[in-house]
Amino acid sequence: MSSGIVDVVVRLLAVFVAFLVLPLVVGQTEHKVMAHMQGRLGPMYAGGFHGWAQLVADGVKFAQKEDVVPADADRRVFQLAPAVALLPYLLVLLAVPLGPGGAVGQVLDAGVFFVLAVMGVGVLGSLMAGWASANKFSLLGGLRTAAQLLAYELPMLLAAASVAMAAGTVSLPGIVDAFHWWWVPWQIVGGLVFFTAGLAELQRPPFDMPVADSEIIFGAYTEYTGLRFALFLLAEYAGIVVLCGLTTVLFLGGWHGPFGADGLGWLWTLLKTAVLAFVVIWLRVSYPRLREDQLQKLAWTVLIPLALAQIALTGVVKVVIQ
Amino acid sequence: MTSALVTAAQPVTTHGFLSSSGVEIAFLLVGLVTLGAAVVTVTTRQLVHAALWLVVALGGLAVEYLLLTAEFIAWVQVLIYVGSVVVLLLFGLMLTKAPIGRSPDANVPNRLPALGVAAAAAAALVWVVADAFRTTWIDLDGAPQGTTKVSGEILFRHWVLPFEALSVLLLAALVGAVVLSRLRNQQEQQEQGQQEEEQS
């Protein structure tokens, strides 16, 4: 019994540490990668070696700033919003399997549905922030967030459903267990749809219309300062980690790799996640922001038909190989 | 008939009503929170707060499903209702009217009739459900009885026809919505065209 409790505590602690460290690693990588792609050096002084402690310093700075709540704002909703935006990603990270044999925070029977459901809840935080700030830019940002979520939730779900059909299970470790290398070409369209829709749900460039700084300042987060603002930023980077981890698990075979099957599986998962995170940063530097109508058009006329076609293909192949 | 009654009555003897195990206490507490949130949803004068309390009520329902080992249903509840329906609600509210603070016009004159209808509906539902499932018990300590596999098998073996009928109904609603919105657009365009002709 006591060993069971210790096991649970160790798992929760490991997930919590990953939740605190990985987003910062992605953030620091973003600083450096963007800088080098643009012919700059990026942060160089904080911490000594190539500015590795820049985000720690940023965190200290945020913690020192005054926490302002606008006079006309709805205080309680305004203060609650960052927590609603951040916590769902912590819960999702709990269900993402790292390696074979139960190397996962919590095994869930309906893992795919769990992660998609909880990720959708995170957007409520942006909506609450947008409404409660009593600021027209915030409200516009919240509106755009909601419109974007409604458009991109469906293709994401359909793409995930395709993999679940292929594996014959909706449990995340079960899906990775059933993976074969030829799933990558088979599910590639679904994978692209899932990743793109996920980017849109995280409001990452080129889908960052809800926080378009040249139009609506910073969207739903305009009125936030100090630690609460930092929590929103952390939610964005935690979202990148979660999205890349999920894409790895669902479409790229998680812990499967060409060699090192015994004991090194978790390294493959981390490596694939890191490569995808690099792609997310790369896209930010490469593509201009999509306009609102282009965003909606991409979701409804390109991604959803592609996802449906992927489901049809999955069904046909599944029947044929049986 | 008598044998059916005997087999139906047998579990009752082994299960006391509210044999306060941990899960049952949690179920009751979450139920109270859900009910409270639902009541606040319909009584608060602040529109957006009502939508947010609805999140609490729907989330509470999902937790109840979880406690009854129906994991799949619970996550679908969160996905559909909290993730989509409430977002749609908030979107609509923000698009039209969402003042911070009380909405003076949120007070409906026929409050009492509404209360009466709600109470009657609740009483009927509780009575029907309690009467139908009085003798059905879920073994919470054994293997989960609401896993995805079990739900899927029941849905696609015993309830295929209602399932398909529902999907046809939803498809009809979808097509209807598209037709209605396009119809109005065409009418507006025609009216605009006529106005332009009149002006010229």
From TrEMBL, chain A:
**Where found, per UniProt?**
Cell membrane; Membrane
Q: Which Pfam families match?
A: NADHdh
The principal localisation class reads membrane
Q: Which organism is it from?
A: Streptomyces mashuensis
| InterPro entries for this protein | NADH_UbQ_OxRdtase_su1/FPO
Q: Does rRNA-binding count among this protein's keywords?
A: no
Segments spanning the bilayer are: 6-27, 80-98, 110-133, 154-175, 181-200, 229-253, 265-286, 298-321
- Assigned keywords, A-Z: Cell membrane, Membrane, NAD, Quinone, Translocase, Transmembrane, Transmembrane helix, Ubiquinone
- Which family is this protein grouped under? Belongs to the complex I subunit 1 family.
- Functional summary from the UniProt entry: NDH-1 shuttles electrons from NADH, via FMN and iron-sulfur (Fe-S) centers, to quinones in the respiratory chain. The immediate electron acceptor for the enzyme in this species is believed to be ubiquinone. Couples the redox reaction to proton translocation (for every two electrons transferred, four hydrogen ions are translocated across the cytoplasmic membrane), and thus conserves the redox energy in a proton gradient. This subunit may bind ubiquinone.
Q: How does the UniProt record describe the way this protein sits in the membrane?
A: Multi-pass membrane protein
| Name of the molecule in the record | NADH-quinone oxidoreductase subunit H
UniProtKB/TrEMBL annotation, chain B:
**Where in the cell does this protein reside?**
Cell membrane
Where on the tree of life does the source sit, at the highest rank? Bacteria
What class does this enzyme belong to in the EC scheme? translocase
Its membrane topology: Multi-pass membrane protein
Record Pfam families:
Oxidored_q3
Gene Ontology cellular component? plasma membrane
Instruction: List the transmembrane segments.
Output: 25-43, 50-68, 74-100, 112-130, 159-180
Keywords from UniProt, A to Z, are: Cell membrane, Membrane, NAD, Quinone, Transmembrane, Transmembrane helix
Q: Does the keyword Chloroplast apply?
A: no
Known catalytic reactions: a quinone + NADH + 5 H(+)(in) = a quinol + NAD(+) + 4 H(+)(out)
Instruction: Give GO MF terms, alphabetically.
Output: NADH dehydrogenase (ubiquinone) activity; quinone binding
What EC number(s) has UniProt assigned to this enzyme?
7.1.1.-
Q: What does this protein do?
A: NDH-1 shuttles electrons from NADH, via FMN and iron-sulfur (Fe-S) centers, to quinones in the respiratory chain. Couples the redox reaction to proton translocation (for every two electrons transferred, four hydrogen ions are translocated across the cytoplasmic membrane), and thus conserves the redox energy in a proton gradient.
UniProt xrefs under PANTHER family: NADH-UBIQUINONE OXIDOREDUCTASE CHAIN 6 (PTHR33269)
The family classification in the record reads: Belongs to the complex I subunit 6 family.
**How is this protein named in the record?**
NADH-quinone oxidoreductase subunit J
This protein's species is Streptomyces mashuensis
